[in-house]
Amino acid sequence: MSNMINIPVNPTYYEVINDFGKKWEEIRSERYKEYRRKWIENPKNFILEDAPLHLDIEPTNGCNLLCPMCPRTVILEDKEKKKNFNVGSMKLETYKGIIDEAVEIGVYSIKLNWLGEPLVHPNIVDMVRYAKEKGIEDVMFNTNAALLTKEMSRKLIEAGLDKLFFSFDSPYKEKYEEIRVGAKYEETLDNIKYIVKLRNELKKDVPLTRVSMVLMEDNKDEYEEFIELFKDIVDVVAYVEYRDPIGKEGKEVHEDTGFACSQLWQRMFISWDGDCIVCCVDSEKEYCVGNIHENRIKDIWKNEKYNAIRNNHRVGHWYNINVCEKCDLPYKKQDGTV
To answer: What are phi and psi of 15, to 5 degrees?
Structure first.
């Protein structure tokens, strides 16, 4: 096998974008555009920057909901897995230290969540504001929006949040509440409508808003209705294909898929307790590459363990890494089929 393979940037979201959303990208700064260019080109060409382009920082792994397709729910419902899952929140001082180093080493972007719901953290607005004041170009997070009060909406807009991504999963009340266990359809929908209305009234261009659904067996025929519900409410309507929450072992490996995970050249995940993970689906921290309480982000990004997984992916040997062998993405051909 060649030691250089031609890879696509792993697709994650399939989107319908309105005029505001299209214009939003056009009017961003040159540094933002440089970041988005690198996001595409670096993994395609295996270009490794001195620092991650982007950090996923987890303020908390706590959540107000128990959605069945979420890895957090799967772990909590498994007695053995639950033993190793410590629920907690990142201290604000720790977070500020991460941002300070991120700015120093040239990180462009952050997302304030991983396994938890960011609105659960009492200092989430302070976290957004601090990152923007320090110069992070793109600050965002995903939310189920159940806790997005009117007061919180105003504070997030004033803090300068760049992007806000809503997870909703069905255009129908009964199905939505069956999937988003603990949320109320009408209340959450009103929360989403309100922050967009307030943003427009304040004549702000942030946050860009996106709503997405996880396309699963029991809602896969609802996407057109989903678009119809949200196309005049938010800027982007999207879906992401369902992936096994914690992966499955014993899959038949296809070595000819030409797969190399783009995340290894783009981003790093930092959990609430400081552990650094290479992949969004490694919810059980099988491939932990360090901890920010022990080493600098820049040093972790290029350490021996991080480079070992990159080297395997670079030559198409992703299946040598257990957590990658269990992932769904490597089994898809470049056109997205399995």
So the answer is: -125, 150
